[in-house]
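re the bet — no i am not wrong, look at it urself. input seq straight from the record:
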Amino acid sequence: MAEDALSRSGSEASTSTTVDVVTKIEEMQEQNADVFAIPDYFVYMSRAFSTLEGIGLSSDPNYSILQECYPYLAKRLLTDDSPRARGALKMLIYGKDGDELDLSKVEELSKGFESYTSSTSSVMSGRGQSNEGRNAAVEQLANVLLSEDSNYVQDLVLHESAVAFDATIREAFLSPLEPLRQLQLPSLGPLTLPLDLAKTALELQAINDSDHKKLENVRILTDALTKGRSTDAFTSQLSTSVDVPRLLQEANKRQRALARIGLRFGGSLTNAQAKRLRDRATGVKTKGDDAIREILANRGAETLEALAEVLSSLDSGLAKGK
């Protein structure tokens, strides 16, 4: 319902999204009366929101109170590390399936976060006549992303960076070796075993559809960070919401935190690689080339998981040495 409200336009926008949400919840209560009941405070709040939205719609058919509240919601989602906020953030940026990162949602969050911080920093900043709000937003975002102690937002960023880095490296490494992977030769037992092992290893590192999506996200982010080299509207908007030089300045102030974040990134990378190998070994039949593939995948995953534990121990050691 919330996503529908944020995306409405035209004739659809002239209806109250708050009323729609409340109506849906009331229907759910009627269908599940023995499971939950709507609290009194929710009824009062929904009536107040409905009244405010009705006033707004009377003067602007495109008005949506959820859109007006979005900057605060963005601030809350990026700074609140509670389980409820974690679930809401994951649903927003990954969608219902929860598999692939939606960069357009990340951009909306970034812009909403900056909008809220700018409007609450000072009057001049709220009017766009000062960079105080933008600088404050960058500092607050750096406090989350570059925190010495891990948090959910930082973990998400490290995970997405790790899987994107993994896909990028594999694409660069596998491209010249693609002819070898596609080579078809009859199996001659021990004579062709080295070649069979090499081909199986390449198969385990192959780029799939999920990897292509991550590589596309890398391209979009790269275009955004180059500021102006891309004519794509989305990357142009994203680049304006990412103040890289200021983020680098903030990072320079956090040398110890960067060391721990580097260890956590290494752990995310090795865990992501181990998971990929185990996923590709799942369901493999235990005979012939499939048996070789399963053995290579599982042993590789075990080695990577052991390395991830070592990196986690090093991070814990640094934490104890504060």
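see?? The two ends are 45 Å apart (CA to CA). told u. also The mean pLDDT is 78. so pay up
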